[in-house]
């Protein structure tokens, strides 16, 4: 039976699941440069179908993309090839990748809320630290609890209906555990009629102060915590996501 991301890889670009990475990658690299970052080697962990990888490749960076879904990675490779671009692509959970070293930046966009607990989050931070040169940047985002509640408000809705592909999404939020589930019900028209598939994406929110404390404990200096408007976050701010810029200490 196909796993969730084997199924989601086939609809990922059609429903713009990589939209956040596509919209933010250039802004984040520009922000890093305005904060004295320089470099050419960038790794995108959890790269999906390659939205960030494409932007970085277009702008002359030496790029590595890592994703645990071979199906997602194949779509990313196809997208790069269609534009005449190239990058090193690794099919693996990034926490099991040991050959990526001496990077100038690690990006991790729309990924870390999928980790199941604080221990997994700490392991991720520690492993990413090992990928970086000293004083280089790790940039990541995370949904806030508020952001997952907002994401959940859509309830049950029609997500896509075009070209023989119809997708419904059903949302559920566990307030006690701060976990949001999004179930995708997919109908695709083929030669034998309509075929149905289902996939699920589960996201968990973590307290912002706890995340930044964990980043510091993992060997980083937290330089900036930003809202979605790219302004400095304060506890009174309303924001669906935070963006963290951390420097390897």
Q: What are the secondary-structure elements, in order, as H or E?
A: HHEHEHEEHEHEEEEHEE
By DSSP, the count of extended strands is 11
Structural class: alpha/beta
Binned, the helix content reads 25-40%
Strand residue percentage: 35-45%
CATH class of the largest domain: Alpha Beta
State mean pLDDT (0 to 100 scale). Answer: 95
Largest sheet: 7 strands, mixed
Number of domains: 2
Shape: globular
Contiguous helical run count: 7
Strand order of the largest sheet: 3-2-1-4-5-11-10
The CATH topology of the largest domain:
Rossmann fold
The CATH superfamily of the largest domain is Vaccinia Virus protein VP39
Describe the structure.
The structure is a single chain. Helix content is 29%, strand content 36%. The chain has a 7-stranded mixed sheet with strand order 3-2-1-4-5-11-10, with helices on both faces. Strands 6-7-8-9 form a 4-stranded antiparallel sheet. Strand 1, helix 3 and strand 2 (62-67) form a beta-alpha-beta unit. It is an alpha/beta fold and 249 residues long. The chain is globular, with a radius of gyration of 18 Å. The protein has 2 domains: 4-145 and 207-248, 3-Layer(aba) Sandwich (Rossmann fold), CATH 3.40.50.150; 147-204, S-adenosyl-L-methionine-dependent methyltransferases (N-terminal domain of TfIIb, Single Sheet), CATH 2.20.25. The longest helix is centred in the N-terminal third of the chain and has 15 residues, at 19-33. It has helices at 4-8, 19-33, 51-58, 70-82, 118-131, 145-152, 208-217, and strands spanning 41-45, 62-67, 88-91, 103-108, 132-143, 156-162, 165-174, 179-190, 193-204, 220-226, 241-248.
């Amino acid at each position: 039976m196909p796993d969730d991301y084997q199924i989601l890889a086939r609809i990922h670009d059609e429903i713009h699941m990589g939209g956040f990475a596509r919209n933010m990658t250039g802004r984040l690299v520009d922000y890093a440069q305005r904060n004295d970052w320089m470099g050419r080697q960038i790794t995108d962990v959890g790269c999906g179908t390659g939205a960030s990888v494409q932007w970085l490749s277009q702008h002359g960076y030496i790029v590595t993309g890592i994703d645990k879904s071979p199906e997602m990675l194949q779509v990313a490779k196809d997208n790069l090839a269609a534009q005449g671009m190239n990058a090193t692509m690794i099919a693996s959970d990034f926490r099991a990748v040991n050959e990526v070293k001496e990077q100038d930046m690690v990006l991790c966009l729309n990924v870390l809320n999928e980790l199941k607990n604080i221990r997994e989050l700490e392991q991720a931070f520690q492993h990413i630290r090992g990928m970086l040169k000293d004083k280089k940047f790790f940039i990541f985002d995370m949904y806030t609890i508020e952001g997952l509640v907002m994401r959940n408000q859509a309830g049950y809705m029609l997500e896509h209906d075009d070209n023989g592909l119809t997708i419904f999404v059903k949302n559920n939020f566990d307030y006690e555990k701060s976990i949001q589930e999004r179930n995708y019900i997919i109908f695709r028209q083929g030669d034998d009629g309509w075929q149905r598939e289902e996939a699920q994406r589960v996201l968990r929110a973590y307290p912002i102060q706890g995340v930044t404390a964990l980043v510091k404990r993992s060997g980083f200096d937290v330089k900036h915590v930003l809202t979605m408007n790219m302004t400095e976050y304060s506890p009174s701010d309303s924001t669906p996501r935070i963006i963290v810029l951390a420097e390897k200490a």
